[in-house]
Amino acid sequence: MLLILGILFVTCCILLWALSSPFYWKSKGVPYLFPLPLFGSYLTSFLLSNKDFYAKLYKNYPNEKYFGLHFYTRPALLIRDPSIMKDIFMKDFEYFTSNGLYSNFDNDPFGENLLFLHGQEWKELRLKLTRQFTPSKLRLMNDYVENIMKNATVYVNNSIKQNEPIEIVKMNTNIATDVIVQAVFGIETDCFQEKSLFSSLGMKMFSPKTNTNMLFGTVSPKLNDFLKVNIFEKDVTEFVENVMKDVFEYREKNQFNKKDFLDAMIDIMKTNENNNKNEIYFPDKTRVPEYTFKNALAQALL
Q1: Could you list the residue ranges that cross the membrane (predicted)?
Q2: Burial class of residue 163 in the structure, from the number of CB atoms within 10 Å of its CB (0-12 exposed, 13-18 middle, 19+ buried)
Q3: Tens digits of per-residue pLDDT, 174-183?
Q4: 167 versus 206: which is more confidently predicted?
Q5: Residue 278: which residues within 8 A CB-CB, separation 6 or more?
Q6: Closest CA to 40 of 182, 164, 215
Q7: Which one, of 184, 298, 186, lies nearest residue 250 by Cα?
Q8: Where in the chain do CATH 1.10.630.10 domains reside?
Q9: Domain at 127-300, CATH class
């Protein structure tokens, strides 16, 4: 019975696609790549590296300023002209608030992250975050990166001396994890040391499963909502949440300020303490986001 229902579901999806999706860009007079069912223009992405796939994709319609394609089942536009790109990223940036990524903020804590918000919600949160990330604060984060790279250099030199292979993926993950933990949480770490708890956490956060979950939500948001697929594993989210709570409580109790990412999050939360707790909605029916611990957690998981 389940098999029959599954076949019927897939058949309906293909029929719906065949009746509307392939002709989306044609109806708008835009040159386009004819999409395949379900995979759109991205079937070969499974066979090529990201670099090679997008290089091949870009070479279509070399004389056009832009052309249409399908990001699996969703229409997308590939811009080739530098002047149009400049307008999108600068003059008209406020009109391009959706980057195509999706995660439901009601089910997934990471769904409150700036990457996954759209429209007015994205604008409001981006404005709050932009005010906090001044050049001086960003320079402080550079100090963390420099110290972490010193640890990475020691690790590479020791591996060479001992004639041991260097796992590039693991090394890069350790670097990224140390940067996140120190710059975001203000906790001194060294993931290149054996039995580092944060190292194993980083491997989970940057695992292929995370990428798969992110892709799943982007390709089929409705199915993602139905199955309640989260970006990160539950234990990863809970661990980060507990660390954040401990750091928040310590800083509040001891009036400790490091002028780092978490301090910026605390400042934003304090400015919202006197706001009306009832949800407020924009004219387009999207909610005005209150900035709470849940929002701060979502940004930290970035």
Answers
A1: 30-49
A2: exposed
A3: 898 888 888 8
A4: 167
A5: none
A6: 215
A7: 186
A8: 127-300
A9: mainly alpha
